[in-house]
Design a protein that fits this description.
The chain is mostly beta strands and about 120 residues long. Helices cover about 0% and strands about 50% of the residues. It contains no helices and eleven strands. The chain has strands at about 5, 10, 20-25, 35-40, 45-50, 60, 70-75, 80-85, 90-100, 110, 115-120. β7 (about 70-75) and β8 form a beta hairpin. The mean pLDDT is about 95.
Length: about 120
């Protein structure tokens, strides 16, 4: 059974940092791309970042480029999202998901975690 568990969310002041973790079980991380997504209240879920399984290529939404960094540790079956210079508009429920490749279509992603809340506020 595929399971993805997010952790690391919390309340942080603007300009602060958080590191999210996505622990994956039930599949071999080497063969899957992992994406981070977020959903703010009243808004649609959006893609934040993705790391591919093939060559480790990374992708970022324009809104987080230069501030967020995605990485993976296949030995630990875990993917991380380092978030720096956080802004109030980054407040959302953050999810990770697995797919065969970094698809730009959210509907393609079939295995989702439960999410971890990130709140950026003073």
């Amino acid at each position: 059974q595929v399971q993805l568990v997010e952790s690391g969310g919390g309340l942080v002041q603007p300009g602060g940092s958080l590191r999210l973790s996505c622990a994956v079980s039930g599949l071999t991380l080497d063969y899957y791309a992992i994406g981070w997504f977020r959903q703010a209240p009243g808004k649609e879920r959006e893609g934040v970042s993705c790391i591919s399984n093939s060559d480790g290529s990374t992708y970022y939404a324009d809104s987080v480029k230069g501030r967020f960094t995605i990485s993976r540790d296949n030995a630990k079956n875990t993917v991380y999202l380092q978030m720096n210079s956080l802004k109030p508009e980054d407040t959302a429920l953050y999810y990770c998901a697995a797919h065969n490749y970094c698809s730009g279509y959210i509907a393609d992603w079939g295995s989702w975690g439960q999410g971890t809340q990130v709140t950026v506020s003073s």
